[in-house]
C-alpha cells in the first residue's frame, strides 16, 4: 500500500513591514513616533540650569547665545544637510552646533578680526564643505549677494533656516564700527537697521521655512524699552508670520553676574523697576 503523506506545518519567517517615517517639510521628526521626542521643548517657557560648554562650545565671547537654543531650534526646524543662515555670527555658536547635528551653516559677521578668530574653531575641510564665514555688514545688499554666492556653492538657492541674534541696542558695545547695531545713535535707528537685516533674511529664506529671533529688552531713561516686541513688528513688516513667543531664563548668559547681583537688587528697590531675568526666542515662518 502507498505510504500516507505526512503533512507538516511549515512556519514561514515573519515579514516585518518597515514603515516610512512621517515627517514635515522642515524637519526630520518622525510624527509616527512623536513620543520619543520628549527632549524637544514645545512650551513657551524654556529654562536651562547652565550653559552647555561641551562639543566645541565655550563662553569665550560676551553676548553669544547658549548652545541649547541652537540644539532645540535646529532639531525642530531643520533637516540634516540643511543650510542655516546666521546674520550675527559672533563667536560661531550656530556653526558649531550645525556641524554637531549634521547641518551646514553660513555666518555673517561684521568684525574681520572676529571672523578670523572663529575660523580657527573649524578645520580647513569644514570651512570648505560645511561652514562658510562671511565678513560683511548684514544690513547691506553686498552681504546679501555674498550669501547668495555661498549658497550656490553649497548647492542651494536659499537657506532653510535663519538665526537672528542682534545686539540688544546699546547695552553692550561690540565694536567701534559705525555700522555696528550696538553703536546706533538712537533706538529708532537700531530698529531701522535691524529691519534691513530682517529683509535680507526674508529674501534669502526658502518659502514655508522658519526663522528665529533671539533678543531681550532693555531699561533706559527710567523706562522699559521693549526691543523684542518692536523687532517682532519689524520682522512682520518685511513679510514674516509670527509663530511663537518663547520666554527663556538668562542663566549662563552673563559673566560675573553674581558679583553685582546685590547692587542691581538695591537699584531695583530704589528705582521701582525689576531686574531682567529673561529674554525672548521668537519664531517666524516665511509664508
Describe the protein's architecture and organization.
With 287 residues, the chain is α/β, with parallel strands linked by helices. Helices cover 31% and strands 21% of the residues. The chain has helices at 67-77, 93-100, 112-119, 124-129, 141-153, 187-204, 227-237, 257-271, and strands at 45-46, 83-86, 104-109, 131-135, 159-164, 205-215, 218-220, 223-225, 240-249, 278-286. Strands 1-9-10-6-5-2-3-4 form an eight-stranded mixed sheet, with helices on both faces. Strands 7-8 form a two-stranded antiparallel ribbon. Helix 6 links the parallel strand 5 (159-164) and strand 6 (205-215). It starts with 44 loop residues before the first strand and ends with a strand.
**Residue share in helix:** 25-40%
The helix-and-strand class reads alpha/beta
Q: Which range does the strand content fall in?
A: 15-25%
Distance between the termini: 83 Å
Main sheet summary: 8 strands, mixed
Question: Mean of the pLDDT scores?
Answer: 91
Number of strands: 10
Count of DSSP-assigned helices: 8
Q: Are there runs of 5+ residues with pLDDT below 50, and where?
A: none
Strand order, sheet with most strands: 1-9-10-6-5-2-3-4
Order of helices and strands: EHEHEHHEHEHEEEHEHE
Shape descriptor reads globular
Gyration radius from CA atoms, angstroms: 24 Å
Looking at this protein, list some descriptive labels:
10 strands; globular; 21% strand; 287 residues; eight-stranded mixed β-sheet; two-stranded antiparallel sheet
Map the helices and strands:
Elements: E1 45-46, H1 67-77, E2 83-86, H2 93-100, E3 104-109, H3 112-119, H4 124-129, E4 131-135, H5 141-153, E5 159-164, H6 187-204, E6 205-215, E7 218-220, E8 223-225, H7 227-237, E9 240-249, H8 257-271, E10 278-286
Parallel strand pairs: 1-9, 2-3, 2-5, 3-4, 5-6
Antiparallel strand pairs: 6-10, 7-8, 9-10
Helix pairs in contact: 1-2, 6-7
